[in-house]
């Protein structure tokens, strides 16, 4: 939801909050980091073929059949490869973990991801989400849910009908949490 260099690194994430939001213990997150590093190898990032086996072990993913799981893994990989490098960093992988945990309210997962992936500049907007950042987030969510390209502009107009160029964090998260297009697993 932004370039890799400008976002908060996983070492700076609130690990207690991440554990709470992801449904994983800190030990499980540490284990995922070890597994991630082993799968990623020397370059420190996951290719698609390295991601699928790790994704298949995440809580709740096993409910899908193998074919559906791989299809979903590919879509999710593309969604979280924000810089289009065909790789996932550990930070991007953590986003996957949070978003696919359907045992937690969508509102909490989306809100957490928005806060964790915002740049320093975005964090200092006093709880506001700019049109530019809102479009970035909406594009990724549309990718995740399989919506067509350009749909993010229509959603933004619904969130910001007065065309202010920004909305509150709460307005944004509430829209995503309640909109029927984003209420599919």
Which key terms come to mind for this protein?
calcium, mainly alpha, 58% helix, globular, EF_hand_dom, 185 residues, EF-hand-dom_pair, 3% strand, disordered N terminus, Recoverin, domain 1, two-stranded antiparallel sheet
The biggest sheet amounts to: 2 strands, antiparallel
Shape: globular
| CATH architecture call | Orthogonal Bundle
Q: Widest sheet: strand order? A: 1-2
CATH fold category name: Recoverin, domain 1
Number of domains: 1
Pfam family, one: EF-hand_6
Keywords: Calcium
Protein name: EF-hand domain-containing protein
InterPro entries: EF-hand-dom_pair (IPR011992), EF_Hand_1_Ca_BS (IPR018247), EF_hand_dom (IPR002048)
What does it look like?
The chain is mainly alpha-helical and 185 residues long. It has a single domain (4-182), classed as Recoverin, domain 1 (Orthogonal Bundle). It is built from ten helices and two strands. It has a two-stranded antiparallel sheet with strand order 1-2. It starts with 14 loop residues before the first helix and ends in a 7-residue tail after the last helix. The model is unreliable at 1-5 (pLDDT under 50). Keywords: Calcium. InterPro entries: EF-hand-dom_pair, EF_Hand_1_Ca_BS, EF_hand_dom. GO terms for molecular function: calcium ion binding. This is EF-hand domain-containing protein. Residues 68-103 form the EF-hand domain.
Concise overview:
It is globular, with a radius of gyration of 16 Å. Mean pLDDT is 82; it is low at 1-5.
């Amino acid at each position: 939801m932004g370039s890799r260099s400008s976002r908060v690194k996983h070492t700076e994430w609130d690990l207690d909050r991440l554990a709470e939001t992801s449904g994983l213990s800190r030990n499980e997150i540490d284990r995922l980091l070890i597994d991630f590093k082993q799968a990623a190898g020397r370059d420190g990032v996951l290719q698609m073929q390295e991601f699928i086996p790790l994704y298949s072990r995440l809580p709740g993913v096993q409910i899908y059949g193998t074919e559906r799981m791989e299809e979903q893994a590919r879509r999710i990989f593309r969604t979280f490869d924000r810089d289009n490098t065909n790789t996932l960093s550990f930070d991007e992988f953590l986003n996957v973990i949070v978003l696919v945990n359907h045992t937690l309210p969508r509102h909490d997962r989306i809100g957490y991801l928005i806060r964790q992936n915002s740049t320093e500049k975005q964090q200092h907007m006093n709880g506001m989400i700019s049109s530019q950042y809102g479009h970035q987030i909406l594009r990724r969510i549309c990718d995740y849910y399989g919506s067509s390209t350009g749909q993010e502009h229509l959603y933004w107009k619904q969130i910001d009908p007065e065309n202010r160029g920004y909305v509150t964090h709460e307005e944004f998260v509430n829209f995503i949490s309640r909109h029927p297009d984003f209420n599919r697993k």
